[in-house]
Amino acid sequence: EVHLVESGGGLVQPGRSLRLSCAASGFAFSGAGMSWVRQSPGKGLEWVSDISSGGSTTYADSVKGRFTISRDNAKNTLCLQMNSLKPEDTALYYCTLTSWGLRRNRYWGQGTQVTVSS
Question: For 105, phi and psi rounded to 5 degrees?
């Protein structure tokens, strides 16, 4: 069964960095496109970034140039390096399979909270 566990969130000041990780298991990680999505308080889910099985990456305009998605297929791990954080990046961050889009299902993890505040 698919299992996704996000970690690495926290409280940081604007302009600082955080690195999120997602430990994946229960499926063929190396062959799966993976994504990060986020949900801010009172808002819907927002797509953040994708990485294909081949390593191609795409980013939402709001994070382009500040965030970097990466994957380690040997460790079944997805990462999101977040630099120059802004208060508007405050959200609960989830890793998902790209094929799921923004549709929640029972395999979604608990997410990891990122709070950017001075």
Answer: -145, 180
